[in-house]
């Protein structure tokens, strides 16, 4: 059996205000071609199907079209909910969807019940662990403690405790199945040893969010979700990462999926397949005029661009000017080479003994990096006189 491991689609996410639905549909819809070309039997999505608990109608329709294309390509689908999803919304109509080959695993009470598949070597059990918010999951697990492998009480708190309980139930179910049953587990968690990026929402509770990889011992393959960079923690324990970059910290990542092969003895091998990049991410640093004129920056004109300006004086309307050359510039910082913009401001010292006119002049200087001009001082004086007159008329 061949499994395609993906996760963290975040359908509906924007990138610094730019709509990504078109890019998401293009990349995710291309998974259907991969299913055909690589003869994939089942596609697993390890959480964060959507970017928010209540996705827009457009995001839902995009996701429906993508899932339909993958199913039409011939693969079964197993999807779990992540920390960005609403488990109840993602899992709606799960029983009806399963009849069409879309298996939604979002209920804590049923995480020990696998999707049962088979190939020429026998049965394959695919278990989906939805994202387990520690305290609610702890209560939910204790409410259904009458299943094999369940603890009478979960004494510890945190992610490790609830994931350990979930895996105990899964291993107990797997042990009761016929010899030779292969197993795949989907889980949405921060496993120790993984590298994070800037685009993941923290799942820390009480300052602790990581769980040890040993929690997942005893199964053939663990398809992890949550971290957005593709990575291998062990041969059987991997993150696929997100299909698109969602922060500039991911600019150097090559987005991909894992192709997982199971034979009669379990895990036979894992191969990586890189995904297309709709628009490259890049960062650049320099003074505004140099960035606008230097020919060597031509290759950045079609990139999503993060710009750090080093001008000693804050330029006027820098983003508007940058976007004339770089239409996809989406992020801007001003960090003068002298470090003036980052110098700490001591409010009490700044205001002591100064009148409104001096404070207004200082405000302009701090914001822009240069003192106001004579004409600007005249305008500031006019504004302050108007305010004083309005207050005197009350």
**Relative strand content:** 15-25%
- Please report the number of helical segments: 12
Number of strands: 19
Can you identify the CATH class of the largest domain?
A: Alpha Beta
User: Structurally, how many domains make up the residues?
Assistant: 2
Provide the gyration radius in Å.
Answer: 27 Å
Overall morphology: elongated
Strand order within the widest beta sheet? 6-5-4-1-15-16
- Assign the CATH architecture of the largest domain: 4-Layer Sandwich
Mean of the pLDDT scores?
A: 91
CATH superfamily of the largest domain: Metallo-dependent phosphatases
CATH topology of the largest domain: Purple Acid Phosphatase, chain A, domain 2
Low-confidence stretches: none
Which oligomeric form is depicted? single chain
How would you classify the helix and strand content by structural class?
A: alpha/beta
Provide the descriptors you would attach to this structure in a database record:
394 residues, 6-stranded mixed β-sheet, 12 helices, exonuclease
Structural description of this entry:
- By secondary structure, the chain is of the alpha/beta class.
- It folds into two domains: 2-274, Metallo-dependent phosphatases (Purple Acid Phosphatase, chain A, domain 2, 4-Layer Sandwich); 281-392, no CATH class.
- Helices cover 30% and strands 24% of the residues.
- The strands form five sheets. It has a six-stranded mixed sheet.
- Helix 2 (31-37) runs parallel beside helix 3 (57-72), helix 6 packs parallel to helix 7 (159-175) and helix 11 (356-368) packs across helix 12 (374-392).
- It is elongated and about 85 Å long.
- The mean pLDDT is 91.
């Amino acid at each position: 059996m061949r499994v395609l491991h993906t996760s963290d689609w975040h359908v509906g996410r924007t990138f610094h205000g730019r709509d990504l639905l078109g890019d998401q549909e293009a990349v995710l819809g291309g998974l259907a071609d991969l299913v055909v070309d690589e003869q994939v039997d089942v596609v697993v999505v390890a959480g964060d199907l959507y970017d928010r608990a209540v996705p827009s109608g457009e995001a839902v329709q995009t996701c429906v079209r993508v899932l339909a294309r993958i199913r039409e390509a011939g693969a079964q689908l197993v999807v779990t909910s992540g920390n960005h999803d609403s488990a109840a919304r993602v899992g709606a109509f799960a029983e009806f969807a399963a009849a069409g080959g879309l298996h939604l695993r979002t209920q804590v009470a049923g995480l020990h019940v696998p999707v049962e598949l088979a190939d020429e070597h026998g049965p394959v059990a695919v278990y989906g662990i939805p994202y387990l918010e520690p305290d609610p999951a702890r209560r939910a697990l204790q409410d259904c403690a009458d299943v094999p492998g369940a603890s009478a009480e979960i004494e510890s708190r945190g992610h490790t405790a609830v994931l350990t309980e979930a895996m105990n139930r899964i291993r107990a179910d797997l042990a009761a199945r016929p010899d030779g049953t292969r197993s795949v587990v989907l889980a949405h968690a921060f496993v120790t040893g993984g590298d994070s990026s800037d685009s993941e929402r923290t799942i820390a509770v009480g300052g602790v969010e990581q769980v040890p990889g040993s929690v997942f011992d005893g199964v053939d393959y663990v398809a992890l979700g949550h971290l957005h960079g593709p990575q291998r923690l062990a041969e059987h324990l991997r993150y696929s990462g997100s299909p698109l970059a969602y922060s500039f910290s991911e600019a150097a990542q090559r987005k991909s999926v894992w192709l997982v092969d199971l034979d009669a003895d379990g895990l036979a091998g894992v191969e990586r397949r890189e995904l297309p990049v709709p628009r490259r991410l890049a960062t650049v640093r320099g003074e505004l005029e140099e960035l606008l004129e230097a020919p060597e920056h031509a290759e950045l004109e079609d990139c999503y661009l993060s710009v750090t300006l080093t001008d000693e004086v804050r330029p006027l309307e820098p983003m508007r000017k940058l976007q004339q050359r770089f239409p996809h510039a989406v992020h801007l910082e001003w960090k003068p080479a002298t470090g003036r913009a980052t110098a700490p401001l001591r409010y009490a010292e700044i205001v002591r003994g100064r009148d409104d006119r001096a404070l207004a002049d200082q405000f302009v200087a701090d914001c822009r990096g240069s003192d106001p001009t004579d004409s600007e001082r005249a305008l500031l004086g006019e504004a302050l006189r108007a305010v004083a007159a309005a207050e005197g008329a009350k």
